[in-house]
């Protein structure tokens, strides 16, 4: 894509930038090579994201280890692509979520390996951190709200790939989505990718909930109320399958119980205790 030119140029999602903003944006893109960079322009805040060079989180290594050891393809992380392919994949997924009616960051500018996105305000993770002690009920309500939104994503025929509250935000009260760096649906059936979403999200719910005894079942029911039947069936199969891993995971935990392993055990144990097919849900595919 060509560089923007001229005052008031409309770049990508119809966002108008002044000549000063365009110059400052291009200087930042050429002078810095940080993977994610916040940039304060004259009239707005934007984020520059460059593809490639990311250090994968430890949980991805844990997923890959168990996937290979027990031959469970649903746990296999998305394949690592070239920066150009990663960029094309993420832009395409942002467009897909937007077309389905879900809030996403606006793309101000995109090149072959980098993009500039609008600021979406505080993430849900940040909102939760600010209210955990002051209002634990509202804190856990976010976990339930995100689970319901994830069910609507799945009902719309999409999957997120790496659902975490740090990758979600609020827009006019609705949950928005960003950081589409993984696309498991490209290497496995959609229903399997959606069930994988649920497992990964409950790594967050079981670990973050102030009152997990109430919040975990409520979050699962919120997802089930929106989720398509195929994803619910696949989640039952997935939880039964990964139950094979629990004995080994607990054994490893006796030697070294890291935070990622603890979350994996907690989420798997919970999902195995609450069969998803026990709750009926509507077949809806609308974002709102």
How would you describe this structure in keywords?
alpha+beta; two-stranded antiparallel ribbon; disordered C terminus; 288 residues; four-stranded antiparallel beta sheet; Phosphorylase Kinase, domain 1; disordered N terminus; 2 domains; 10 helices
Can you walk through the features of this model?
Mean pLDDT is 82; it is low at 1-10 and 279-286. The strands form three sheets. A four-stranded antiparallel beta sheet has the order 3-4-6-5, sandwiched between helices. The protein has helices spanning 19-31, 58-70, 83-99, 124-131, 136-155, 190-208, 212-224, 229-242, 246-255, 259-273; strands at residues 9-11, 15-17, 36-40, 45-50, 107-110, 114-118, 168-171, 174-177. The protein has 288 residues and is α+β, with helices and mostly antiparallel strands. Helix 6 crosses helix 10. It has two domains: 9-118, Phosphorylase Kinase, domain 1 (2-Layer Sandwich); 124-278, no CATH class. A hairpin with a 4-residue loop joins strand 3 (36-40) and strand 4 (45-50). It has ten helices and eight strands. The protein is globular and about 60 Å long. The chain is 49% helix and 12% strand.
What percentage of amino acids are in beta strands? 5-15%
Give the % helix.
40-55%
Helix count equals 10
- SS-based class: alpha+beta
SSE blueprint and pairings:
Elements: E1 9-11, E2 15-17, H1 19-31, E3 36-40, E4 45-50, H2 58-70, H3 83-99, E5 107-110, E6 114-118, H4 124-131, H5 136-155, E7 168-171, E8 174-177, H6 190-208, H7 212-224, H8 229-242, H9 246-255, H10 259-273
Helix pairs in contact: 4-5, 5-6, 5-7, 6-7, 6-8, 6-10, 9-10
